User: Fold this.
Amino acid sequence: MGCSLRVAWDDGLTAYNFGPQHPLAPVRVELTMALAREFGVFDTAGVSFVPVEPADDKLLELVHEPDYIAAVRRAGQTLAPDDPYSLGTPDNPVFAGMHDAAALISGASVAAAGAVWRGEAEHAANLAGGLHHAMPNHAWGFCVYNDPAIAIAWLLEQGAKRVAYVDVDVHHGDGVQKRFYDDPRVLTISLHESPATLFPGTGTPDEIGGPNAEGYAVNVALPAGTNDGLWMRAFHAVVPPLLRELQPEILVTQHGCDTHALDPLANLTLSLDGQRQTYAELHRLAKETAGGRWVLMGGGGYELVQVVPRAWTHLLAEAAGSPIASDTMTPETWRDFAHTRTGEVPPLRMTDNRTVGYSRFEDGYDPDDPVDRAIQATRKAVFPCHGLDPNL
Assistant:
């Protein structure tokens, strides 16, 4: 059964480009949109595009300090590093038009949030978004402006009182957590690789929110090597109970696909099939707990040909209500295009041929298993804040 979906898109979204040697290459978004078009996702009944405008300073200032915004604008004009704002670092090189490119991504996420909030569509997507690390006064982790936080802050300005944000990127969603750490209107849940082994070094279970919002920051820090089944065990042990308790007015999700085993920058071992199942679970939870109101964004993902286009095409198709069967062949025309653009041999199918199963955490806790210890640490830290028993 189809779902109404608005896709925030403008070709200018690929202008967010740190240069040919940087891992966050915009070709990954270009290849995703091309693959989704070949599969007819955008021709599905109920799917349409939403116009995109750059976020103005008023919108950006919902999260970022005015002097930082001015520094980003200046750096994109002069191409000079600006150390106090972490502009010009290896992670965040300056590039021409940096402010305009980053502001367009933020504007796209606000446009997506607006389409859902106004009831124009059940779901809305900005795959170029999900830049969840950017801080109020400096760039961080490939992120200049924090579009998920800006979109959520805009929803609060419109009157939203309960927003849930679920982040399944391999890296901790630190910038979004920071912005709402003391705000009980926003529940932030991040499942990520342990900060002991991965950037940004935050996201421990004891980060639970400020004095006015204890239990509204939720962190599941998973050990390196976590696979599909263990990931799904952790997801189901934490995310559904909290969303069911909160009953958010709108669900915002960030879908970095750098949890994949092939990703060069991280150490989890999910497959495309596990990621696809995660998208389906979030879709189901949006319908169950948020009245179907779902805003979805991209995020990290640095295996540019083998992983990102397939993962996010599955995500778009899921949001459109027309999932693509996992064993479907990738279109030959897309494979030719991807090879021409990158010189790589593209994948033949929309699957990694993995069967994803998991055991329920509630059916038995193994204190010798590091994933179970991570799950239990999170549940003990936050479940009591919501009146939930961490042992049930």
User: Anything to note?
Assistant: The two ends are 34 Å apart (CA to CA). Strands lie at 5-8, 47-50, 123-126, 163-167, 186-193, 217-222, 250-254, 294-297. The chain has one domain: 5-52+109-386.
